[in-house]
Amino acid sequence: EKYELAWQEAQRVAAGLQGMYSSETELLRAFHDYIIRCCEYDYNTFLNLSISQPEPFTAYGALLGGKAVCDGYSSAFAMLCRAADIPCIYVSSSELNHSWNAVFTGGQVLFVDVTYDDNDDPAGIVNADHFLKTKEEFLATHAGWDTSLCDRLTAAIWPENYGAARILYQLG
Questions:
Q1: Residue 111: in which H helix or E strand, if any?
Q2: What's the mean pLDDT when you consider all of the chain?
Q3: Helix (H) or strand (E) holding 151
Q4: Long-range contacts from 16-19, C-beta under 8 angstroms, 24+ separation
Q5: What is the DSSP pairing of strand 40-41 with strand 67-68?
Q6: CA distances from 99 to 1, 20, 38, 78 (A)
Q7: How many Cβ atoms from other residues are within 10 Å of residue 126's Cβ?
Q8: How far is CA 138 from CA 103, 145, 170, in A?
C-alpha cells in the first residue's frame, strides 16, 4: 500500500516538474533538489541501524514521510525517474553500506548521490557535488566501492547502442 502511495506521489511530482524543464538534465536536477527539499536524513534510524521502522528505507519515507536514509533517497530518485521515463537504477555498495543511483542520460551512464548532496543548508542552497558524475568522478568521493557488479549490470541493461535506440524511441 505504501509503495503504491509513493508511486502515485512520484507520478504527480514528475508530471508537475516535466512541463517546467526543457532538458533531461534540468529535470534530473529538479528531482534531485525536490527530494533534498522535501526529505531530511533520518539520523536516528542510521545510528540505531534498525529496520523496525521500514519507511526511512523506502521511497515512501523520502517522498511522503519526510525522513529517509540513503536507501529511501535512492529509491525515491529512481521512482521519480521511472515516472518520467528516464532510465535509472538503484545502486548499492555493501563495502560502503550506502546506496545511490545510476542514470542513462546524454548517451552515457552517470551517477547521482542525492543523500550526499543533502547538506541541510539553512538557507536552502542545494549542493550538487554528487550529481551526474562519471564513474571516475564518483569514485573520488566513494572510494572503496567495487564497481564490477554495477559495470556488468549497466552494460547489460544499457548496451553500447542503447543511446541511439532511446533517441529513436523518443522520436516515436
A1: strand 108-112
A2: 93
A3: helix 148-157
A4: 17/84, 18/84
A5: parallel
A6: 24, 28, 19, 11
A7: 17
A8: 13, 10, 28
Phi, psi angle pair for 41, to nearest 5°:
-65, 135
- Can you spell out the DSSP letters for 8-68? HHHHHHHHHHHTT-SSHHHHHHHHHHHHHHH-EE-HHHHHHT--SS-GGGSHHIIIIISEE
Burial class of residue 43, CB neighbours in 10 A (0-12, 13-18, 19+):
exposed
In the block, cell 548499492 appears at 92
Residue with cell 537504477: 89
Q: What is the pLDDT of residues 156-169, one digit of tens each?
A: 999 999 999 999 98
**146: phi then psi, degrees, rounded to nearest 5:** -85, 110
Please report, as a single letter, which amino acid is at residue 16: G
**Is the entire prediction scored with pTM above 0.70?**
yes
Distance of CA 20 to CAs 17, 52, 66, 70, 93, Å? 5, 38, 24, 27, 34
The length of the chain is 172
State how far the Cα of 96 lies from the Cα of 4, in Å rounded to an integer: 30
